[in-house]
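Incident review: delayed structure delivery

Summary: a single-chain prediction request sat in the queue longer than the usual turnaround. Root cause was a stuck worker, restarted by the on-call engineer. No data loss occurred. The affected request and its eventual output are reproduced below so the record is complete for anyone auditing the incident later.

Affected input:
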Amino acid sequence: PVSVEHDATYCIDGPICSGSGASPAGSLCPVKGDAAIADCHSYLASYTGGESCVLPVDATCQVIKTGAWGCVIPGYPTPAPTTYEHATPAPT
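Output delivered after worker restart:
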């Protein structure tokens, strides 16, 4: 099984994307149409209703926030602090 960052867990054959360093130990990730085997939740990009998650696009192998290699949905917004151009004045 392989987890996709900010998504569910999928089952694939072959050397999965993993490891740390300049290049991954494996490079395979789930592809569009793969059904999740675990960790399917309604707030995920792959959620299709009920208890079903199906990957909407091919996941890619890249360095994730921990510094390790992992599978990621390309273009999926990752949680980050909201930044504002101008601070909201506090009441006085």
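Verification: DSSP finds no helices and six strands in the chain.
Action items: add queue-age alerting; document worker restart procedure.
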